[in-house]
Protein: Peptidyl-prolyl cis-trans isomerase
Amino acid sequence: MPHSTTPVVTSDAYLTLHYRLVSNDGNEIISTFSNSPATLQLGSGQLAPELESALLGLEEGSHTILELAAGNAFGPRNPDLVQQVSLETLQENSVYGEKYVVGDLVEFSAPGGGQFAGILRAFNESGALFDFNHPLAGQAITFEVKIIGIL
Structure:
Protein backbone atom coordinates (compact mmCIF):
# COMPACT_ATOMS: atom_id res chain seq x y z
CA MET A 1 0.00 0.00 0.00
CA PRO A 2 1.43 3.44 -0.85
CA HIS A 3 2.20 5.74 2.08
CA SER A 4 -0.05 8.81 2.26
CA THR A 5 1.75 12.10 1.80
CA THR A 6 -1.27 14.24 2.69
CA PRO A 7 -0.28 16.54 5.58
CA VAL A 8 -2.24 16.17 8.82
CA VAL A 9 -2.85 18.65 11.64
CA THR A 10 -0.29 18.39 14.45
CA SER A 11 -0.13 20.18 17.81
CA ASP A 12 2.13 22.95 16.44
CA ALA A 13 0.76 23.18 12.88
CA TYR A 14 0.24 26.48 11.11
CA LEU A 15 -3.19 26.23 9.44
CA THR A 16 -5.27 27.97 6.84
CA LEU A 17 -8.88 26.94 7.34
CA HIS A 18 -12.51 27.86 7.28
CA TYR A 19 -14.48 27.18 10.45
CA ARG A 20 -17.93 27.70 11.88
CA LEU A 21 -19.30 27.38 15.40
CA VAL A 22 -23.02 26.79 15.86
CA SER A 23 -24.71 26.67 19.27
CA ASN A 24 -27.02 23.81 20.21
CA ASP A 25 -30.05 26.02 19.49
CA GLY A 26 -28.87 26.46 15.88
CA ASN A 27 -27.50 30.01 16.14
CA GLU A 28 -24.31 30.63 14.18
CA ILE A 29 -21.72 32.07 16.55
CA ILE A 30 -18.87 32.64 14.12
CA SER A 31 -18.10 31.61 10.56
CA THR A 32 -15.29 32.31 8.12
CA PHE A 33 -16.96 30.41 5.25
CA SER A 34 -18.34 33.55 3.60
CA ASN A 35 -15.12 35.55 4.13
CA SER A 36 -11.40 34.97 3.81
CA PRO A 37 -10.16 31.83 5.54
CA ALA A 38 -8.52 32.09 8.94
CA THR A 39 -4.85 31.43 9.52
CA LEU A 40 -3.65 30.34 12.94
CA GLN A 41 -0.86 28.61 14.80
CA LEU A 42 -2.01 25.72 16.97
CA GLY A 43 -0.78 25.93 20.54
CA SER A 44 -0.73 29.74 20.54
CA GLY A 45 -4.12 30.23 22.21
CA GLN A 46 -5.99 31.50 19.14
CA LEU A 47 -8.59 28.74 19.54
CA ALA A 48 -9.94 27.14 22.72
CA PRO A 49 -7.77 24.11 23.63
CA GLU A 50 -10.69 21.72 23.12
CA LEU A 51 -11.25 23.07 19.59
CA GLU A 52 -7.54 22.69 18.81
CA SER A 53 -7.65 19.09 20.09
CA ALA A 54 -10.58 18.36 17.77
CA LEU A 55 -8.43 19.43 14.78
CA LEU A 56 -5.53 17.07 15.53
CA GLY A 57 -5.10 14.37 12.90
CA LEU A 58 -7.40 15.97 10.31
CA GLU A 59 -5.98 15.86 6.79
CA GLU A 60 -5.35 18.82 4.52
CA GLY A 61 -8.40 19.25 2.28
CA SER A 62 -10.76 17.56 4.73
CA HIS A 63 -14.18 19.02 5.57
CA THR A 64 -15.43 17.81 8.95
CA ILE A 65 -18.41 18.55 11.19
CA LEU A 66 -17.85 17.71 14.84
CA GLU A 67 -20.44 17.69 17.60
CA LEU A 68 -18.81 18.73 20.87
CA ALA A 69 -20.81 17.77 23.96
CA ALA A 70 -21.86 20.33 26.56
CA GLY A 71 -18.77 21.52 28.40
CA ASN A 72 -16.32 20.02 25.89
CA ALA A 73 -15.79 23.11 23.72
CA PHE A 74 -15.46 25.97 26.20
CA GLY A 75 -15.44 24.01 29.44
CA PRO A 76 -18.18 23.49 31.99
CA ARG A 77 -19.96 26.39 33.64
CA ASN A 78 -18.30 27.33 36.92
CA PRO A 79 -20.73 28.77 39.51
CA ASP A 80 -17.75 30.41 41.29
CA LEU A 81 -17.34 32.68 38.24
CA VAL A 82 -20.72 34.33 38.90
CA GLN A 83 -19.73 37.16 41.24
CA GLN A 84 -21.08 40.31 42.79
CA VAL A 85 -19.08 43.44 41.84
CA SER A 86 -19.45 46.61 43.90
CA LEU A 87 -20.47 49.83 42.14
CA GLU A 88 -17.11 51.31 43.18
CA THR A 89 -15.19 48.43 41.56
CA LEU A 90 -17.35 48.67 38.46
CA GLN A 91 -16.63 52.41 38.12
CA GLU A 92 -12.88 51.99 38.77
CA ASN A 93 -12.35 49.11 36.36
CA SER A 94 -14.64 49.79 33.43
CA VAL A 95 -15.53 52.67 31.12
CA TYR A 96 -16.44 55.66 33.29
CA GLY A 97 -20.01 56.87 32.90
CA GLU A 98 -21.09 53.88 30.82
CA LYS A 99 -24.74 52.93 31.24
CA TYR A 100 -24.97 49.16 31.46
CA VAL A 101 -28.01 46.98 30.94
CA VAL A 102 -28.55 43.32 31.84
CA GLY A 103 -27.01 41.17 29.12
CA ASP A 104 -24.12 43.55 28.34
CA LEU A 105 -20.61 42.15 28.02
CA VAL A 106 -18.44 44.44 30.17
CA GLU A 107 -14.64 44.55 29.98
CA PHE A 108 -12.64 45.08 33.15
CA SER A 109 -9.02 45.93 33.75
CA ALA A 110 -7.36 42.98 35.43
CA PRO A 111 -5.01 43.45 38.38
CA GLY A 112 -1.48 43.54 36.99
CA GLY A 113 -2.65 44.52 33.50
CA GLY A 114 -4.73 42.86 30.84
CA GLN A 115 -8.48 42.64 30.40
CA PHE A 116 -11.25 40.23 31.24
CA ALA A 117 -14.96 40.36 30.56
CA GLY A 118 -18.21 39.34 32.19
CA ILE A 119 -21.87 39.40 31.26
CA LEU A 120 -24.06 41.61 33.45
CA ARG A 121 -26.79 39.40 34.93
CA ALA A 122 -28.38 41.72 37.52
CA PHE A 123 -28.00 45.26 38.81
CA ASN A 124 -29.01 46.86 42.11
CA GLU A 125 -28.10 49.80 44.35
CA SER A 126 -25.12 48.00 45.95
CA GLY A 127 -23.53 46.54 42.84
CA ALA A 128 -23.86 44.27 39.87
CA LEU A 129 -23.89 40.50 39.40
CA PHE A 130 -21.53 39.37 36.64
CA ASP A 131 -21.02 36.00 35.00
CA PHE A 132 -17.34 35.62 34.11
CA ASN A 133 -17.82 32.21 32.49
CA HIS A 134 -17.16 32.05 28.75
CA PRO A 135 -20.55 32.79 27.12
CA LEU A 136 -20.48 29.31 25.55
CA ALA A 137 -19.33 27.42 28.68
CA GLY A 138 -21.47 24.38 29.35
CA GLN A 139 -23.06 24.39 25.89
CA ALA A 140 -22.95 21.77 23.18
CA ILE A 141 -21.36 23.17 20.02
CA THR A 142 -21.21 22.11 16.39
CA PHE A 143 -17.71 22.78 15.03
CA GLU A 144 -17.44 22.69 11.24
CA VAL A 145 -13.97 22.93 9.74
CA LYS A 146 -12.43 22.79 6.26
CA ILE A 147 -8.65 22.44 6.37
CA ILE A 148 -7.26 24.37 3.36
CA GLY A 149 -3.55 24.21 4.07
CA ILE A 150 -1.12 22.89 6.69
CA LEU A 151 2.45 24.13 7.15
